[in-house]
Every structure is written in C-alpha cells, then in structure tokens.
Amino acid sequence: MVFKPVRSALLAAAALTLTVTTSGCSLFSQPRDDSGTLTAAATIHINETKVGDCIAEFPESGGGISDVKAVPCATAHNAEVYAKTENSLASSKSWAEDYCTGEFASYIGIDWNSSILEATYVAPPSGSTDKTLVCIVMEPGVTDATTSLRGSAK
C-alpha cells in the first residue's frame, strides 16, 4: 500500500486566520460527550479532530484540506482519524509515512502490509509553523460506512 499525502490548506498568509480560528474553537462547545466522543456532526478544522473521529465526504484526491465534516461513526462516512501527533517533523513526507504506518496496527488490529484498507495523512505545508499530523484510514469503495474501523482487522 502507498500513502497518499494530503497537505493542510494552510498558507503562510493564512497563519493569522488559523490562530484566530483555533483560538475561537475553544470558546465554542463542540458536540462531544465528556469522554471526547462526537455526539453530532460538526464542521471543524482538521487539526481539531481527535483519534476515532469519523469524517463524512473526505476527499479522495489531493489538495488542501482545512475544514472537515466530523460525524459520529454511526453516521455515514468515508474516512476515520486513526492517529494524530504534533511534531516539528510533521511536514516531512518520510517521517509522516513512518509515523502513520507505525500507528496503524494498534488502531486497526492488523499489520499495515496485511490490510485491505487505504490510508493517507494531512500534514502541514513545508515551512509552516503548524506541527499537526493527522493520519486517516479509509475502506476502498466504501463511501457510507456506519461503523468504526477501530479493531476491524481489515
């Protein structure tokens, strides 16, 4: 399997907007229960997703990603966040691929090379002050899953 990297839609000129948006998110309640699990759909910045969040309408092709529609996994979706980290090396393709590959088995329950699933990641653009790397898993051909892939061993 090959990772298909997706760059976060952050431009140097938008850094201030990201700061304001990120700061503003903490002022508003997100639809999560006390454990942090989504209880309703919400459009949030990709960096605000949490491991286990499912995403409706995640784009299959590259391009910049900023906001995503995060949904409870019982709601139709085509992607899921399986790992996330903040590291100054997040924009490095090889580091990002190594990190996401290394986290795959502990979430899915099967080794990366044995899986039928596809994965990608959203990384900051090179030179960005953003350090967030989000690893995403998808089941090929499935656009309306209603269960989590966590522990699926697919």
Q: Into how many domains do the coordinates divide?
A: 1
| General shape | globular
Low-confidence stretches: 5-28
Share in helix: 10-25%
Element order: H for helix, E for strand: EHEEEEHEE
For the residues shown, what is the average pLDDT?
A: 82
Number of DSSP helical runs: 2
| Portion in beta strands | 15-25%
User: Strand count, sense and closure of the main sheet?
Assistant: 7 strands, mixed
Give the N-to-C terminal Cα separation: 13 Å
Radius of gyration: 15 Å
Task: Describe the protein's architecture and organization.
- This protein is 18% helix and 24% strand.
- It is an alpha+beta fold and 154 residues long.
- It has one domain (4-138).
- The protein has a 7-stranded mixed sheet with strand order 1-6-7-5-3-4-2.
- The longest helix has 16 residues, at 93-108.
Can you summarize this structure?
This protein has 154 residues and is an alpha+beta fold. It has one domain.
Secondary-structure map:
Layout: E1 4-7, H1 15-25, E2 42-45, E3 54-56, E4 67-71, E5 79-86, H2 93-108, E6 118-123, E7 132-138
Parallel strand pairs: 1-6
Antiparallel strand pairs: 2-4, 3-4, 3-5, 5-7, 6-7
Record keyword descriptors for this entry.
154 residues, alpha+beta, 7-stranded mixed β-sheet, 7 strands, 18% helix, globular
